[in-house]
Hints:
The complex is a heterodimer.
Chain A: E1 7-11, H1 15-27, E2 31-35, H2 38-48, E3 52-56, H3 64-72, E4 79-83, H4 88-97, E5 101-104, H5 109-127, E6 134-137, E7 140-143, E8 148-151, E9 154-155, H6 160-171, E10 176-178, H7 179-186, H8 195-209, E11 219-222, E12 226-229
Parallel strand pairs in A: 1-2, 1-3, 3-4, 4-5
Antiparallel strand pairs in A: 6-7, 7-8, 8-9, 10-12, 11-12
Helix pairs in contact in A: 2-3, 6-8
Chain B: H1 2-12, H2 18-35, H3 38-55, H4 69-116, H5 121-136, E1 140-144, E2 154-155, E3 166-172, E4 175-182, H6 193-242, H7 244-260, H8 266-296, E5 305-308, H9 310-320, H10 322-325, E6 330-334, E7 341-344, H11 345-361, E8 369-376, E9 379-386, H12 418-428, E10 432-437, E11 443-450
Parallel strand pairs in B: 6-8
Antiparallel strand pairs in B: 1-2, 1-4, 3-4, 5-7, 8-9, 9-11, 10-11
Amino acid sequence: MSSNKPAVLLVEDEEAIRRFLRVSLEAEGIKVVEARDGAQALASAQRFRPDLYILDLGLPDLDGLSLISALRQWTRNPIIVLTARAQEALKVKALDAGADDYLTRPFGIHELKARIRVALRHLVTLEDPNARPIFWMGPVKVDLADRRIMRGDEEIRLTPTEFRLLTILARHPGKVITHGHLLAEVWGKAYERETHYLRIYIKQLRTKLEENPSQPRQIITEAGVGYRLIINQ
Amino acid sequence: MIGVASSASWLLFERNDLVNTLMLFVLGSSLCAFYLSRRATVVAALASIAAFDFLFVPPTFSFEVNDSRYLLTFGSLLIVSLVIANLAALLREQVRIARQREGHTRSLFELSRAFADTHDLDEILGALSARAGLELGCPTRIVRTHNIAPGPSHLPISGAEGHYADQFLIRAGGRSIASLEVGPGPELRRIGADDRLLLESLASLAGVAVERSLLAQAAETERRRAEMQEVRNTLLSSISHDLRTPLTVILGSATSLLEAGGTIAADTERQLLEGIAGEAERMSGILCNILDMTWLESGAIELNKTWNDLEELFNAARTSLAIPLRLREVSVDVATGMPLLECDGAMISQVIGNLLGNALEHTPEGTPLAVQLGVSGEHAFFRVRDFGPGLPPGKEEEVFQKFYQAHPEAHRSGMGLGLSICKTILNLHGGEIHARNHQPAGAEFWFSLPLSPHQPSVEAS
Lengths: 233, 461
């Protein structure tokens, strides 16, 4: 990107939706490039190198999942997909294919803007190799490199598994990590379907890290899909 | 028998007591008639005549007869024996037929009892084939001649391959739908006329059962169709009412804004815009419910069952309702050591969200909510109590019916589908959902989910 304005490639076949998204996003200072279908999307992606992709999963020519895979061949920039309701399985597939986030239609523009902000911030950390892996979760400071987690002066001790789980979640803050992905990364491929491990260890993590474990603000459950780590900015 | 009669007569009677001796021989021949075949009886009768002549008729120990009247005696003895033999044979035949009939009747009875339990076509035909095989000791199979229901057209049930000599058609609804094929048994047993009669009866009984099952299926289909038609009618009238109102607001507001073209007061403009946004959101809620209901009832649902923590699902639903919940005091009581549940996390989370949303919508702002999670017997349960006006007495369970609205005149969001979606989801999970009023005041909703017999094991790490 030449200018400082972040650019978004908007892949959506409904013109009315493209129009209102363009108006809303441009008001936020975001440059919007539009594509009507998968072929246009791939061409525009090569030409404009956008910072962020917003994909409608139901495209006329190409199935959304293939488009995600095609984009992931050469870009690591965030992809947000727009899905229909009650399609948890499709959301999981999209996330596993490389999407960063999803929004369920109909969505509010505030929600979309919030997701775009999270994704663009994530892009900055992606691009900055010197960024120290230190972040805050509410009043809790996490230093992944030193393996040190502090609440004020008090150190919070995590078991190796808890720490590994937190590391995987922290790799992509704000992004939904699917159950299968977390299980495979922390326990191994053979554990991909053993969701009870996650329930138990996420509960332990919340007890140690959340201010109020029964109303979690840092480790968010996406029922039927996965978990999302929210860190302070 | 003749030997016994001769010896007994020899020992018991005087040589000249011929009358008693003769009676003993008649008794012997009669007994022979009852137990032996007709031909053997004739031979026995001739033999007893010979023995009587040889041993007792003077001159004894010779077949010669002095008195020609004895020839008459011999003739009578022979005729009596034959008559008795005939009567006995007739009786035996009748006993045999009665036994066979009883066997057939029992066989038909057993088969009809097997049919009574099922409406499944394959099971009916399978039971027929098995019963026929059992009765005859032959390999049997069913060949479908007319495909009236989905299934393989050729369906071997017992004794798959080989030579099947006889065919018996199974007719239902005026056409033959399958045939029962019977092959010669291992001992190459011939299928006789009686067997044939039995098999025909069995096959026609199966035909009746198939016809009954087809009629039952047709009735069920018709019932469902009528039910769907009713749902569709209600849906249409609800949609036309519930969607028209917000659409009217949106269309009217948007047109006003377009036509006013900037001459409108800022706060009026804002009111119109808020109206548009609010009504669109309401429409979106209604549409989501309609879609969910349609999807849940499509029969194509595959539950994504994983291990879930009910408390976590409640917390997730609570977080997503954080904004409307911020003015409410929510007390939460979770039993210690709640087990994990095997369920579709997204769906159960939606149920909890619907119940919380329902409580929020139907109670005055500021009233508290009480949530309880626990285990009761083989079930885990979730309960939410509100302290609002409660449910109409006596109609507590009606709230789960589709399109039920407590206050139809009120302008509300869900079109009466939210709770019936919950019920459908719980049904899919083998769980239950109920509603009632509690003391002193307010409504209480609770659902329960079956616990898995075993908790998953976790290797410590």
